Amino acid sequence: MEMQTSKDKELSPLDKKILNAVQKDFPLTSRPFQEIAIKVGSTETEVLSRIRQLRERGIIRRLGGVFDSQKLGFVSTLVALRVAPKQLDEVGAKISSLPGVTHNYQRDHTFNLWFTLVCPDRKELEANLAAVERYPGVEKLRNLPALQLFKIGVNFKME
Amino acid sequence: MPDFLEKRIISRLQGDLPLTLTPYADLALELGMGEAELMAKISELREKGLLRRIGAVLNHHNVGFSANAMGAWQVPPERAQEVGRQMAAFPAASHVYERPTYPDWRYNLFTMLHARNRAEVEKIAGEISRQTGINDYLLLYSTREFKKVSMNYF
Fold first, then answer.
1. Contact A63 B98 (CB under 8 A)
2. Closest to A52 (Cβ–Cβ): which among B19, B87, B112?
3. Structural Rg of chain B based on CA atoms
4. What was the pLDDT predicted at A6?
5. CATH number for the domain that contains residue A93
6. Are residues A81 and A52 part of one domain?
7. In a domain, B34, yes or no
8. Which chain A residues are closer than 8 Å to B151 by Cβ?
9. Which of A40, A150, A159 to mutate to test the interface with B (most CBs of B within 10 A)?
10. How far, in Å, CA of A41 to CA of A38, rounded?
11. For residue B18, is pLDDT > 90?
12. Contact list, A145 vs chain B (CB under 8 Å)
């Protein structure tokens, strides 16, 4: 996991300024790229063209809205699984195919598979968890819904 | 719960904004409404908290933050509130939550820690531990990404 650090060297100083500017609040104005251009000391068309490139290169995963699932009426949880190592590939792929699964990672612990699940209501969430628990190879399932949220966002400060 | 028009706007904003000089005007055209009306609606979604923000979601690997650990902390329940706030104050920490425990999982506070390498992650975790006095913690690194997407709500 520690390889790609050289990749950020390909980002120009202007790219970095733009990335720092667009992470937190993208302007809600008619000409948002003009507003960013003023902030980073560039032109509107240059900023737009850089952002297009950053999006194409996958450095920006998405430029859009970030929503509060709970306020939209959805329920979500984090789930820890212990999966028999032999069946991990299969279970991992099956879980990824569930539409409400947004993050699904293998981790170096006896609970070796961790995923987040977002569903329109509690009933559907529980039905999903009951199904996952029956997947061959799943030895333990621990449902870890948030009891309290202290912080969600992160800003990657690029220098 | 969002109404019909809000759902249409959310459905469009959960993807990408048009990368054009006038993204809101172009989006409004797509949705069959005026630019001013769309911007007012978005601002309302934001005020009501349904929309956290409009912004760029970065691929942190590609911007040099390639070490990401899920920190799991065993915090006495009566200190959860105080320690959660302390952890949230660390710029490298995101997703700070209190979650339930089980006999085979006793860690109740969670943080995602982002840094350029594992040594840096460990340093930050050590700093959090010193500041909070919580010494029992795990750093769970992801060894494989099966899936990472933004949710499609509507």
1. no
2. B19
3. 20
4. 45
5. 3.30.70.3460
6. no
7. yes
8. 67, 69, 74, 100, 102, 118
9. A150
10. 5
11. yes
12. 99-100
Contact (CB<8Å) B56/A23: yes
Mean pLDDT of chain B: 95
Q: How many domains, in total, are found in chain B? A: 2
Average pLDDT value for residue range A121-129: 97
| Residue in B with minimal Cα distance to A5 | B64
Claim to verify: residue A102 and residue A139 sit in the same structural domain = yes
How much is the pLDDT for A9?
Answer: 54
Q: Say yes or no: B36 and B84 in one domain.
A: no
**Structural tokens at position B111:** 């943080």
Containing domain of residue A92, as a range?
Answer: 75-144
ipTM (interface pTM): 0.90
Convert the pLDDT of each residue in B60-87 to its tens digit. 877 888 888 999 999 999 999 999 999 9
Q: At a CB cut-off of 8 Å and minimum separation 6, what does B139 contact?
A: B69, B70, B71, B113, B121, B122, B125
Give me the residues paired with residue B72 across strands.
B110, B138
Residues B83 and B125 in one domain: yes
State the best of B58, B82, B94 to mutate against chain A, taking most chain A CBs within 10 Å.
B58
Chain position carrying tokens 């390889």: A3
Terminal CA-to-CA distance of chain A, rounded, Å? Answer: 21
Q: pLDDT band for position A124 (50/70/90)?
A: very high
Query: What CATH number does the domain containing B132 carry?
Result: 3.30.70.3460
| pLDDT (mean) for A124-140 | 98
Assess if residue A20 is contained within a domain: yes
Judged by a CB distance cut-off of 8 A, whether residue B36 touches chain A is no
* Residue B89 covered by a domain: yes
* Partners of residue A1 in chain B, C-beta under 8 Å: 66-68, 118, 141-143
Task: Tell me which H or E stretch contains A82.
Answer: strand A75-83
B134 and B67 inside one domain = yes
